[in-house]
Amino acid sequence: MIEASDRLAATATADDSTAVVARLDFEAALAQLPEEFRASVVLRDVAGCDYAEIASILQIPAGTVRSRIARGRARLAETMRAGGGNHHDAAERRNDEASNHE
């Protein structure tokens, strides 16, 4: 008979796996954003910077920051709805881009 702690451990492992896959899909979708949108979205939604900080970091007007974040989030949501952007494809794309810059 499976004990409650064993069931809890199995559930936690499944939840952890789901979270990891979701994170990989998010990162893959994020990697597909054009750099101008990606930088703004990451600084706001991942790093927690406010709009004025982002404007200063990127040296662009605050209105442009807001616009890029809105457009970046919209594209990110669209990519995630379309299947998460397959993290394997995104990793291959990043490797290709890196080798093209060498």
Protein described:
- There is one protein chain.
- The protein is 80% helix and 0% strand.
- The chain has 102 residues and is mainly alpha-helical.
- The longest helix is centred in the first third of the chain and has 28 residues, at 4-31.
- The model has no long low-confidence stretch (mean pLDDT 80).
Key terms for this structure?
Arc Repressor Mutant, subunit A, 102 residues, elongated, mainly alpha
Query: Into which percent range does the helicity of residues fall?
Result: over 70%
Number of helices: 5
Roughly what fraction of the amino acids lie in strands? Answer: under 5%
CATH homologous superfamily heading: Winged helix-like DNA-binding domain superfamily/Winged helix DNA-binding domain
Walk me through the topology.
Layout: H1 4-31, H2 35-46, H3 51-58, H4 62-81, H5 87-100
Helix pairs in contact: 1-5, 2-4, 3-4
